[in-house]
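thread: overnight batch results

M.L. [08:02]
morning all. the overnight job finished for the chain we discussed friday. pasting input first so we're all looking at the same thing
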Amino acid sequence: MNWFAIFRRRTEAGPCDLRERYKHFRELGRSLNVELVKQLPKSAVPECGKKLGIFKSGTLILNNDDEIAVLYDYCLYHYRRGGKNVIERHLERSPPPPESSEMQLLQAMLTAYFSLFRIEAIQPHRGAALRDLVTEKTLDLLDLSLSETGMPGMILAGRIITLPEFTMSSGAMIPVPEPVLQEKIGSVIRTFKSNTRVDAHRPFTAGREASFAAQVLRIALHAGGEDNTFFSDIDH
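M.L. [08:03]
and the structure it wrote out:
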């Protein structure tokens, strides 16, 4: 991969060019997720659904359509067989061309991670500056929907994907009310941080992250109920 060319494109591209690149990868991500979901074993949805508290007595219990996207996201990244998730298996069996956008996105998905974030500032027509509540690191998230409807101080649970040009979410970001963070999720963060060496680039190992994400999502989905409203750029 020609990293010099990528760096030059990143530094020379204007805001409009960057947004177009973002839209390209966002659309590619949606198409790729559909393909990867089809490759999931039949046991993935019930097993992961139980961990998130939305699969009971053989039935998915969803408050709104966005919750299925959260479930699929968890399945894609955390349902493992033989130590590998569907993204890793797809790369082994059907790798796209090395220089393609699809390969670039798949490689970035391998290092994507789930965490909780507080919005530090809104960046108009671009996204938001976030602070990771696990690592305490800050990052700029390119998300056009969040730039229009997000607010400083808001807490979000979700997964981020870092590409050479920008960082975006893997899909829906779930708002978490401050009382829920303080009363329920805060203790989860403290427990995981006390038993794990937190890495600035990826807070937990794959297994620990799966457990952490399941606990946080279970609380967040239950707390929001039918009023859950997620952030996604589907219409942008």
